[in-house]
C-alpha cells in the first residue's frame, strides 16, 4: 500500500473507532437499515468465517443538489473491539436512489456488529444520515483455503478463476474461467478455485437465468468452492 494511502487509512481508522457517538448531524440523505447480502443482493441466512459478504444499505436523496459523501462501515466484535473499517467515496445524485455496499470477510466465528456511517468527508465528519447497525452471527468456515484442506477428489474436475478476472475483457477472450468449458459425467464433483485477488461467486445456471441448484456466495481469493 502506498505510504500516502496507508496514512489516510490509519487516520480514518483512528477517527472512526473513536466515533462511538453520532457527533454532529445535518439533514440530508435517507439511508435504510443495513442488511447482510451476497453479491447479487440477496439476503444471506448464514455467514461463515472466511466467506465474503456485503454490508448493504439502500440510499435515497431528497436534496435539490448532488451531495458528495464518504460511506464508512465499521465492524466490531462481541467485546467492542474494531476488527475492520472500510470506506468509499461517492456522490448522491439529487432526487436519486441507490445502494451502498461494503465487502466484509469475517476471519473467525463469533458475534459481530456492523455500523454504517455516512459523512460529508473524512476531514469534515458531519453525518448526512443517522448511523445504523446490524448484528451478525458468524459460523465456522465452510470454505477451505486452497492447499490447506484435502485435494479435490481424483474423479472430480477443477475450474480456476485466474487473476484479474474482475477486469472487463476476460469474457471477450474467454478467459474468465480456465478451462472456459468442461463436460463432466453425472455425479462428478466440480471445484472452483479462486486465484484472483477479488472475491467472486459461482452460481448454477447462466446470465439472467440462475437455477438455484447451488450458489457459492462470495468467496475470497485463495479459496475454493465445490
Describe this structure in words.
This protein is mainly beta. The chain folds into 2 domains: 3-139, Immunoglobulins (Immunoglobulin-like); 157-225, Cupredoxins -  blue copper proteins (Immunoglobulin-like). It has 2 helices and 14 strands, in the order H-E-E-E-E-E-E-E-E-E-E-H-E-E-E-E. The model is unreliable at 1-23 and 143-155 (pLDDT under 50).
Short description:
The chain is mainly β.
Keywords for this structure?
226 residues; mainly beta; Immunoglobulin-like; five-stranded mixed sheet; 14 strands; globular
How is this fold's topology laid out?
Layout: H1 3-18, E1 29-31, E2 35-37, E3 47-48, E4 53-61, E5 67-77, E6 82-92, E7 97-104, E8 110-119, E9 132-139, E10 157-161, H2 170-173, E11 190-194, E12 203-206, E13 209-215, E14 224-225
Parallel strand pairs: 3-9, 10-11
Antiparallel strand pairs: 1-4, 2-4, 4-7, 5-6, 5-8, 8-9, 11-14, 12-13
CATH class division of the largest domain: Mainly Beta
Beta-strand fraction estimate: 35-45%
CATH-assigned homologous superfamily of the largest domain? Immunoglobulins
Radius of gyration, taken over Cα atoms and rounded to an integer in Å: 20 Å
Annotation, overall tally of beta strands = 14
Tally of domains: 2
Pattern of helices and strands = HEEEEEEEEEEHEEEE
Specify the overall morphology: globular
Strand order of the largest sheet: 3-9-8-5-6
- Helix fraction bin: under 10%
Spans with pLDDT under 50 lasting ≥5 residues?
1-23, 143-155
CATH architecture of the largest domain: Sandwich
Distance between the termini: 33 Å
- Major pleated sheet: 5 strands, mixed
How many alpha or pi helices? 2
CATH topology of the largest domain: Immunoglobulin-like
The overall average pLDDT, rounded, is 76
Structural class: mainly beta
Amino acid at each position: 500500500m502506498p505510504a500516502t494511502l496507508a496514512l489516510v487509512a490509519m487516520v480514518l481508522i483512528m477517527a472512526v473507532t473513536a466515533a462511538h457517538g453520532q457527533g454532529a448531524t445535518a439533514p440530508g440523505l435517507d439511508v435504510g437499515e443495513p442488511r447482510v447480502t451476497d453479491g447479487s443482493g440477496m439476503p444471506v441466512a448464514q455467514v461463515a468465517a472466511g466467506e465474503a459478504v456485503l454490508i448493504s444499505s439502500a440510499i435515497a436523496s431528497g436534496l435539490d443538489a448532488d451531495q458528495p459523501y464518504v460511506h464508512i462501515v465499521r465492524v466490531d466484535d462481541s467485546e467492542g473491539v474494531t476488527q475492520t473499517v472500510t470506506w468509499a467515496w461517492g456522490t448522491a445524485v439529487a432526487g436519486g436512489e441507490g445502494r451502498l455496499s461494503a465487502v466484509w470477510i469475517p476471519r473467525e466465528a463469533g458475534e459481530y456488529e456492523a455500523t454504517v456511517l455516512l459523512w460529508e468527508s473524512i476531514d469534515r465528519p458531519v453525518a448526512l444520515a443517522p448511523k445504523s447497525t446490524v448484528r451478525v452471527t458468524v459460523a465456522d468456515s465452510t470454505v477451505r483455503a486452497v492447499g490447506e484442506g484435502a485435494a479435490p477428489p481424483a474423479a472430480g474436475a477443477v475450474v480456476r478463476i485466474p487473476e484479474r478476472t474482475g477486469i472487463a475483457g476476460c469474457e471477450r477472450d474467454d478467459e474468465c474461467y480456465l478451462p472456459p468449458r468442461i463436460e463432466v459425467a453425472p455425479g462428478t464433483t466440480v471445484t472452483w478455485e479462486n486465484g484472483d485477488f477479488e472475491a467472486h461467486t459461482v452460481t448454477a445456471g447462466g446470465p439472467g437465468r440462475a437455477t438455484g441448484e447451488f450458489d457459492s456466495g462470495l468467496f475470497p481469493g485463495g479459496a475454493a468452492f465445490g
